[in-house]
């Protein structure tokens, strides 16, 4: 039989904190506080399961539930020595929501329930305060009329303003009993006018009306939006808490307030909060009066003249402090509490785990571990890895006002302000003149690399989370917003159009790569602050972690940043990114456009020393750590000029006519280059490219080993393999070069040859491919693209619709698709390791920096994850959390 109602009060409770799914957060914690012997007004919780039933039927049909509520009220009556609906010491109730996850302010509350034309007299007599009684009654009618009868707050506010004016009152505290009485009369009249029935006088009708309204508020649009944003299931429903009222508005020895057991923005271990004298909870929320500080220290720091609770009510303060200590020790986490002081007596109305900034979260976790309140693993598990973006990047001041002109995907975190430029050339020019610019493009291509590195931020109107702009910006640690489909780039007129505005090149915008917003003008920013607490958590995380964390780095700068963030090697060096800088692009074009092998070899001969010196530098920076270098992967057309003037320029440099060059470019055109002549297919068509790259790698390994004295073990990675024969062909070429160079050097250099698994066929045939591979690295960007058949560059527009319509829960290019792509990875890992037990497994797609995907990698027993440099700390923390929480396989 379902138990519908759980009572609490008088030092005992039927529920406990662990019953949060049944009782909701508020109910479970009220019960827990009662059991701890803390002063909690007695009450009862109607279980969340009743919410679903109520919403289905539109009313409460359940007799058992009704009987349990009435029995619960009888218990409250006994504990308070008051009677619900009585004229003599009437019991008044508060009716509050309380879902499993905290949803602050999203649902409805009714206070002072049980008042009517008669009980108001009883309350006046009991409190010895007629004014208080009539004020409470008018508050009740106002809340009930709004929340239960749906008449709207404004209707009552208008009357209140009118009455205040009539009586010549500026502030509500100036109103007398008689004046409140007059307000009550007008409220009742308006209710009768609007609904055709008088305001309900019977307390049990009021009670069921309010309970129903709280249940119904689970479906209000505010709550629905909040649930969507915080992935809270509609099926959970809300519990309802019915509790004896205590009054913070019973004169100047009464007060109400909220407190955090530690400072939620800095993490400082000191009580922090605010209160109002002679007020009820909603007055704090309404913000009509300025609240006072709880502690003297806080009052002095804020420069407030109004006395702190510590000074004003020292006894209640001392008790509150002691209770806060107790609650922290009990819950082993920072608490956010609500309290009321009724004529000097303290009552606890709520406790819950307090929300905090990332900086505070780090400090609190470290302090609590050092206070031995929690273990080091607990401290590591407490930090949301994604929140580290707040400490690693410049962010927009949360207090700042923003004029949002458009929004897209939060592709690379951090915020930046600069002048709009529409081309990479303009970006470079502006940077030379010392100006900060935001590069605004429809999308970027590898040709934009110089413009991107000259900009302080990147905004594109097309492209998803693994589009070129997103991947490169993350690598560079630049804020980036991609796929901002509600903005338009009008290149012809040099305008960025959105949010009803047209902005010209040179105008200032701000982009927020953490939220995906594009904002007009400059906005106040907060600088990143890497505190000692951050380093401490990272140290503990590293101790708990099983998987290694490498980085995706193509340049020495990336590699150095990643090392500083604790990367343990390079998991992916995309060699193509080395071919776009300065002179190199021209040599690359020369190679691609050469009409025969001899021409290609000539150009490759010029590229060789450049590649070699890049690799020497990467090997030296990584000083003996593993470095995975991927052979050339992208479709060749990405390197070719597109605009007419550029074609003319390249043609002149190559001694061709623009027409001849255009013809060659046309011949290389592919309809779907992502599935075309790329990956290992290039090395098979043009083995001389593979030869040059292998030569550069081995010569660099020899040189770096001699320079640094640290052994270099290059890991050479072959992209887009689907057939074992493809890998064999390319591997034979690599091995031949290795034999020649290592032999000549007279050094012993180990190396690995492995493959990316980024095609479904490769995953399915992993047992065969593993015969020729020393390692697999899951290229989950392409594997997601090829498994879903969704182009990663064109996905943003319709995936947004998919998310909105609930077709998918998460963008699969951001968080690994456990069921589909995940199964392919599992198959490949199992089959590969069946062939080769020691096969090294890693991931180097963008998922390697996503906490949920990292957990997946831990579950599947991968050896390492690799991600962009700025995500390395996030990955270290997420890998540690996964190691702590994922059950170990024997
Ligand atoms: C991948 O496909 O996941 C990958 C890492 O390669 P790229 O993003 O360069 O295609
Ligand atoms: Mg790939």
TrEMBL record:
Residues 436-516 form the PEP-utilising enzyme mobile domain. Its EC number is 2.7.9.1. Gene3D superfamilies: 1.20.80.30, ATP-grasp fold, A domain, ATP-grasp fold, B domain, Phosphoenolpyruvate-binding domains, Phosphohistidine domain, Pyruvate Phosphate Dikinase, domain 2. It is an enzyme of class 2 (transferase). Residues 21-59, 64-297, 309-372 form the Pyruvate phosphate dikinase AMP/ATP-binding domain. Its cofactor is Mg(2+). Keywords: ATP-binding, Kinase, Magnesium, Metal-binding, Nucleotide-binding, Pyruvate, Transferase. Substrate binds at residues 574, 630, 758, 779-782. Mg(2+) binds at residues 758, 782. It catalyses: pyruvate + phosphate + ATP = phosphoenolpyruvate + AMP + diphosphate + H(+). This is Pyruvate, phosphate dikinase. It comes from Xaviernesmea oryzae. The lineage of its organism: Bacteria, Pseudomonadati, Pseudomonadota, Alphaproteobacteria, Hyphomicrobiales.
């Amino acid at each position: 039989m379902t138990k519908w109602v759980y009572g609490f009060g008088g030092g005992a409770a039927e529920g406990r904190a662990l019953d949060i799914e049944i009782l909701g957060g508020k109910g479970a914690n009220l019960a827990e506080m009662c059991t701890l012997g803390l002063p909690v007004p007695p009450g009862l919780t109607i279980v969340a399961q009743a919410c679903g039933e109520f919403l289905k039927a539109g009313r409460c049909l359940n007799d058992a539930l009704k009987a349990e509520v009435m029995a619960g009220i009888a218990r409250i009556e006994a504990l308070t020595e008051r009677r619900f609906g009585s004229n003599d010491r009437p019991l008044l109730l508060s009716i509050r929501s309380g879902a499993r996850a905290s949803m602050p302010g999203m649902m409805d509350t009714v206070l002072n329930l049980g008042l009517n034309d008669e009980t108001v007299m009883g309350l006046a007599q009991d409190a010895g305060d007629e004014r208080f009684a009539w004020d409470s009654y008018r508050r009740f009618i106002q809340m009930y009329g709004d929340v239960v009868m749906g008449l709207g707050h404004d209707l009552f506010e208008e009357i209140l303003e009118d009455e205040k004016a009539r009586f010549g009152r500026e502030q509500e505290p100036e109103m007398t009993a008689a004046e409140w009485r007059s307000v009550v009369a007008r409220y009742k009249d308006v209710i009768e006018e609007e609904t055709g029935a008088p305001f309900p006088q019977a307390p049990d009708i009021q009670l069921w009306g309010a309970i129903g309204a709280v249940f119904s508020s689970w479906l209000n649009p505010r709550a629905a939006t909040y649930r969507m944003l915080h992935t809270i299931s509609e099926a959970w429903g809300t519990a309802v808490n019915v509790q004896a009222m205590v009054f913070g508005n019973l004169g100047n020895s009464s007060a109400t307030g909220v407190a955090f057991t530690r400072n939620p923005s800095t993490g400082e271990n000191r009580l922090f909060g605010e209160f109002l004298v002679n007020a009820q909870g909603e007055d704090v929320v309404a913000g009509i009066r300025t609240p006072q500080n709880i502690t003297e220290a806080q009052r002095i720091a804020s420069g407030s003249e109004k006395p702190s609770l510590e000074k004003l009510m020292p006894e209640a303060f001392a008790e509150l402090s002691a209770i806060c200590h107790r609650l922290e020790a009990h819950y082993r986490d920072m608490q956010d509490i609500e309290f009321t002081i009724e004529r000097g007596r303290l009552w606890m109305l709520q406790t819950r785990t307090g929300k905090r900034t990332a900086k505070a979260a780090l400090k609190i976790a470290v302090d609590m571990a050092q206070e031995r309140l929690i273990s080091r693993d607990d401290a590591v598990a407490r930090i949301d890895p994604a929140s580290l973006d707040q400490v690693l990047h410049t962010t927009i001041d949360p207090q700042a006002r923003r004029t949002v002109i458009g929004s897209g995907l939060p592709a690379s975190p951090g915020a930046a302000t600069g002048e709009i430029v529409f081309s990479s050339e303009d970006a470079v020019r502006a940077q030379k003149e010392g100006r900060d610019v935001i590069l605004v493009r429809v999308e970027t291509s590898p040709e934009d690399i110089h413009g991107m590195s000259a900009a302080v931020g990147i905004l594109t109107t097309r492209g998803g989370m693994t589009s070129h702009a997103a991947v490169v910006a993350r690598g560079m640690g630049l804020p980036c917003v991609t796929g901002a489909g509600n903005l338009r780039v009008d290149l012809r007129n040099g305008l960025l159009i959105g949010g009803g505005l047209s902005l010209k090149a040179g105008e200032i915008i701000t982009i927020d790569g953490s939220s995906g917003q594009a904002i007009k003008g400059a906005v106040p920013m907060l600088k990143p602050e890497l505190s000692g607490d951050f380093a401490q958590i990272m140290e503990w995380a590293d101790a708990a972690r099983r998987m290694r964390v490498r980085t995706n780095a193509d340049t020495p700068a990336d590699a150095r940043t990643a090392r500083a963030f604790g990367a343990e090697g390079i998991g992916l060096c995309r060699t193509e990114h080395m071919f776009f800088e300065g002179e190199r692009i021209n040599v690359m074009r020369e190679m691609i456009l050469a009409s025969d092998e001899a021409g290609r070899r000539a150009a490759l001969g010029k590229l060789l020393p450049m590649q070699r010196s890049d690799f020497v530098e990467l090997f030296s920076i990584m000083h003996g750590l593993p470095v995975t270098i991927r052979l050339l992967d992208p479709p060749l057309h990405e390197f070719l000029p597109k605009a007419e003037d550029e074609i003319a320029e390249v043609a002149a440099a190559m001694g061709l006519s623009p027409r001849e060059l255009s013809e060659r470019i046309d011949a290389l055109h592919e309809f779907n280059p992502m599935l075309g002549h790329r990956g290992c297919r290039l090395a098979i068509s043009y083995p001389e490219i593979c030869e040059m790259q292998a030569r550069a790698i081995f010569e660099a390994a020899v040189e770096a080993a001699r320079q640094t004295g640290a052994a270099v073990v290059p890991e050479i990675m072959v992209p887009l393999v689907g057939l074992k024969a493809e890998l064999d062909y390319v591997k034979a070429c690599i091995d031949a070069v290795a034999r020649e160079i290592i032999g000549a050097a007279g050094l012993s250099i180990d190396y690995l040859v492995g493959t990316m698994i980024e095609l479904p066929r490769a995953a399915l045939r992993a047992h065969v491919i593993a015969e020729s591979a020393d390692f697999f690295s899951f290229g989950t960007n392409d594997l997601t693209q090829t498994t879903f058949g969704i182009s990663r560059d064109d996905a943003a527009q319709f995936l947004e619709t998919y998310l909105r319509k609930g077709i998918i829960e998460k963008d699969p290019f951001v968080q690994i698709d456990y069921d589909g792509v995940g199964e392919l990875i599992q198959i490949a890992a199992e089959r590969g390791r069946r062939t080769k037990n020691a096969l090294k497994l890693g991931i180097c797609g963008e998922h390697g920096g996503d906490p949920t995907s990292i957990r997946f990698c831990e579950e599947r027993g991968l050896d390492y994850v690799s991600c962009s440099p700025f995500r390395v700390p996030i990955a270290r923390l997420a890998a540690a959390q996964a190691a702590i929480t994922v059950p170990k396989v024997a």
